[in-house]
Amino acid sequence: MASRQQAQSQQGKTYQFKLVLLGESAVGKSRYEIMDAAILVMRFVKDHFDEYRESTIGAAFLAQTVTLDDDTTVKFEIWDTAGQERYKSLAPMYYRNANCAVVVYDITQASSLDKAKSWVNELQRQADPNIVIALAGNKVDLEAKRAVETKTAQEYADECGLLFVETSAKTAYNVNELFDAIAKRMPLEQLADSSRRRGGLNTQGVSLDQNEAASGCACK
Q1: Domain boundaries defined on the chain
Q2: Which CATH class is domain 13-214?
Q3: 23-32, 65-74, 80-89, 179-188: least confidently modelled range
Q4: Pairing relation of β-strands 59-69 and 13-23?
Q5: Which of 13, 14, 142, 148 is the most buried (most CB within 10 A)?
């Protein structure tokens, strides 16, 4: 598993990518019950869990790095869009130029997978054609209440060419692994080569070491 770090080695290379977090809210007494995807990203960025955390209003910005090896670091600029329906129209502002996306659903709510599929369809229609999309089934700590089988979600992800990970924001299970997998999917060397050929900046993928950018990322 790749480790996380806040500072880049002076000899290493750092690549910066925009990541958008998408998910829908359900009904419940706590933030965790209503599956606010912000709880998942807070576990990744701050290693903190708060099931009563307030919902995101509009979108929230966070950043975190993943270290792939001794000289390669991926920095994610994470935009957490609100799961509340009234803010859904704002989502295209954030995913339009995103390099990667995490679409979160609740394994205890079958309807949330249908909503996740809707987000995936929207991303595939309107986002960058090379965007890397990960499907995250959250709340595996509530296995006794599971309503979405792992096989069902895995088959859908395979069909659509998505990364797929089941996670628990509460216990931190597979949270770091999710973002590590996304970082490993980003074609870093191809991005750097593309940047050198073009000789200019492109905000879709930035090599911070060379102050150069690259074009998009590819789903495989």
Answers
A1: 13-214
A2: alpha beta
A3: 23-32
A4: unpaired
A5: 148
